[in-house]
């Protein structure tokens, strides 16, 4: 199978798994979101260390600990991803799957806006149009909800800043997750011990199946990440940019069709504006990527003709 096709399949698998997460977190009840988060942190470290052990890939760690700035960035990334995970788990288990999907729909727009504000990047005209429609959608949804869509905004902003920090750190996905979960391990274990002393822990105090599912939170964190990494090295960023919408689409469908969350007219209108913004954004990204490839292909000919 050609590398490109294999990469696309890995990408679809990664985003499909992320999109179906709302089916998994409710299985972990009666655990509260913070307990689920603590287990996800701990078991994710176990899973990713096991994967690195199989690959015998450890040399990077000795080099990384000699780079305090990078370690500091990964510690910040750990805080951001824990906020993102906790918000997402809370949203799903409190019946707000659709709003969590909104967060990941608007995340690309938030990310480019952060690029302007923090990295002084310049947006193209259509990107500004897309961001404007995204802002309008948030206003429409806020009016419909009777409040700002805080869950969506926290998810989009935390993941947007997380992406910027990870870009600055420039560390591989599996290696980064190892350090991030290692940073989070101490507070996670401390909280789990606290729950145990208070008699409110659920791990080992419910069914064996429940304990297995809590431990499985580590596996379902690591596996899609590895699939994504395999996709990212095989396909262009423009393809990844389109595949990323698989996750919020599936989340949205789970919220509407399975969780049967209510969708008043104002919410449909808000989401329609978001989808219009993303269509414009995707069109602009694909057009720019196509022009870049064309310029690259014409480059040698131009040089030869001089």
Automatic annotation (TrEMBL):
A GO cellular component annotation in the UniProt record: plasma membrane
InterPro entries xref list: EamA_dom, EmrE-like, RarD
Domain spans labelled EamA: 6-141, 151-282
Keywords: Cell membrane, Membrane, Transmembrane, Transmembrane helix, Transport
A Pfam family per the record: EamA
Principal localisation: membrane
Domain of life: Bacteria
Localization annotation: Cell membrane
Keyword Transmembrane helix found: yes
Membrane-spanning intervals of the chain: 7-25, 37-58, 70-90, 102-119, 126-143, 149-165, 177-195, 207-228, 240-259, 265-283
UniProt membrane topology term: Multi-pass membrane protein
UniProt-listed NCBIfam families: rarD
Family as reported in the entry's similarity comment: Belongs to the EamA transporter family.
Record protein name field: Chloramphenicol-sensitive protein RarD
Record organism: Nonomuraea soli
